[in-house]
Amino acid sequence: LPETEVLGRVHRSNQMTILIGVGVLVLGLLISLFVAAQVARPLERLAREADAVGHFQIAAQPIAHSVVREVDRLAVAMENMKGGLRSFQKYVPADLVRTLLASHQDANLGGELRTVTIFFSDVANFTAIAEELRPEELVERLREYLTVLSQEIQAAGGTVDKYIGDAVMAFWGAPTVDPRHAQAACTAALRCQLALQGLHARWQAEGRHPFVTRIGVHTGEVVVGNIGSEARLNYTVIGDAVNLASRLEELNKHYGTRLLISESTFQAAEGTVVARPIDYVSVKGKRRPVLIYELLEQKGDVEGESAELVAVQGEGLARYRQQDWEGAIRLYERVLALRADDPPARLMISRCLAYRQNPPGPEWDGVYRLDSK
């Protein structure tokens, strides 16, 4: 018998089996590729996000969902972790965390000497204001107020160290080294006062009293680093320069000013800011006197009146230190003509009148010493 008659059906069955096997193999391969893609692509994206988190880049991203339950749960957990870190970022300076992560070292107690610029601000008569407001209203107003200050400080590259009630402490030059830290701090201080004018205008339109903010800025050498205990660290600056910056903020009350900077800050930012010399002062707890300036504006914004004010004020202070009381009074009266009812000028005129009546003597060094804060 012909072979085809005996085995033909077998051959056809074999061919059909081969075709079915190839089809199943191709289908299985396609399914495998689909499943692998559903796993590999989200995992690759999650790997990139994990690497970004390692550099403290935690911006919100759409969740990379997957049909594979375990991968989907991992993607959701990754985004939840980033959300927690974004909340944590509000307590710790982000630049500090990125620097620490880049160094691949643990945060340890200790610091280093570095020249930085320190900023202190405070609200005048805050205790009296707090007594008039309900606690929840006080918290809401502080939120608006501190948000404005913090935004301007951070926009200028500063690190907000801490909030002490209504007061703000910040610094420039750490953790990121910035050779123009004094200029940046002065810019932030001026912008803070300008931004607060807009906030106060809105508050007054709503029938609420504004906050009068006093700011002190000083540049000096400090220890910057992790200060505290083994249980809890605080990245901050410590040193005599910090104390002086705080004293400058308090001196605003004595001189009737809003923004005082030290001579070292003025020299470090020289050529970029306009400031008038106010007085040589020795604050409580310090022996060395410091020349303090009132920061007026940035150099590009200077007008003729400001330039004349700086020149007349400087000459008036020089005559005052030379005990030329009549000459100093005439110059400070010119300051009053340029800026009516100027508190520093009126204060210096009253001193000149007192010294004219009771001269301080030849040993007087022209330094005003404050025995209290």
Q: Overview of this structure, please?
A:
With 373 residues, this protein is of the alpha+beta class. Helix content is 55%, strand content 20%. It has eleven helices and nine strands. It has helices at residues 3-54, 69-89, 94-103, 126-132, 135-155, 181-205, 240-255, 263-268, 304-321, 325-338, 343-357; strands at residues 110-123, 159-164, 167-172, 213-228, 233-238, 259-262, 273-282, 290-298, 368-369. Strands 1, 2, 3, 4, 5, 6, 7, 8 and 9 form a nine-stranded mixed beta sheet that branches.
Bulk shape = elongated
- Which range does the strand content fall in? 15-25%
Radius of gyration: 34 Å
Poorly predicted residue ranges = none
Mean pLDDT comes to 86
Q: What class, by secondary structure content? A: alpha+beta
User: What can be said about the biggest beta sheet?
Assistant: 9 strands, mixed
Helix count equals 11
Order of helices and strands: HHHEHHEEHEEHEHEEHHHE
- For the secondary structure, the number of strands is 9
Oligomer: single chain
